[in-house]
Design goal:
With 215 residues, this protein is of the alpha/beta class. Helix content is 42%, strand content 12%. It has a 6-stranded parallel sheet. It is globular. The structure holds 6-O-phosphono-beta-D-glucopyranose and magnesium ion.
Length: 215
């Protein structure tokens, strides 16, 4: 089957927003008197905002109502938005723009498949709004990765079939989502965490058209 489209996760693949998520969650956890560190932050990668809060509250003695939880998630998001509003195109991860441009020139369609509701703001801050043929994000999907919904939605928007797509993901939940969607998958990061992917590279600067076509 001919490769027709590539779907990119945003956070951790095209930009390192994990450090901003960490700062905002840490601020909330400190206010609530809950222990939070980089290891717990690792578990939040690829996970939706609501699910992330649940992970943080695992170490809380207090049980919050649904409304209180929604207010806590909103408080964190306000801080997070403050941080990402100051991002510039200099924060685009190495090789991302070059690789995506290379495959676009070869006639391959490109989309974003991200859990983040802040995707439009991030793409705008990075100056990447025009680069993608479609954007499927947390604003239009209901089910979080590892559910395949976000990638299936991206394929639908691009009018391609699952088996014609390759997904790029940095989170284990995202790799599972790609496989659940019946798509090939390239892991961005460590082989140990992303062993289910068809290929693992350290970043998009290590990708090219030849490697993509050999999948
Ligand atoms: C994912 C991140 O891309 O988006 C997660 O990896 C984050 O860490 C999720 O929780 C939701 O993001 P947002 O911006 O909607 O809070
Ligand atoms: Mg990610």
């Amino acid at each position: 089957m001919k490769l027709k489209a590539c779907i990119f996760d945003l956070d951790g693949v095209i930009v390192d927003t994990a450090k901003y998520h960490y700062l905002a969650w840490k601020r909330l956890a400190d206010q609530l008197g809950i222990f939070f560190n980089e290891d717990i932050n690792e578990r939040l990668k690829g996970v939706s905002r609501t699910e992330s809060l649940k992970i943080i509250l695992e170490l809380s003695d207090i049980v919050y109502t649904r409304d209180e939880e929604a207010a806590l998630a909103a408080r964190k998001n306000q801080w997070y938005v403050d941080y990402i509003s100051r991002m510039t195109p200099a924060e685009i991860l190495p090789g991302s723009f070059e690789f995506i441009s290379e495959i676009k020139n070869a006639g391959i369609k490109v989309a974003i498949g991200s859990a983040s509701k802040n995707t439009p703001l991030i793409l705008e801050r990075l100056g990447l709004k025009e680069l993608f043929d479609a954007v499927a994000d947390g604003n239009i999907v209901k089910k979080a990765k590892p559910d395949p919904e976000v990638f299936l939605k991206a394929a639908e928007m691009l009018k391609v079939r699952s088996k014609e797509c390759v997904v790029f993901e940095d989170a284990a939940a995202g790799i599972k989502a790609a496989l659940n969607a019946g798509m090939k998958c390239v892991g961005i990061g460590s082989q140990k965490i992303l062993s289910q992917a068809d290929l693992v590279v350290s970043g998009l600067d290590k990708m090219n058209l030849e490697k993509l076509n050999s999948l």
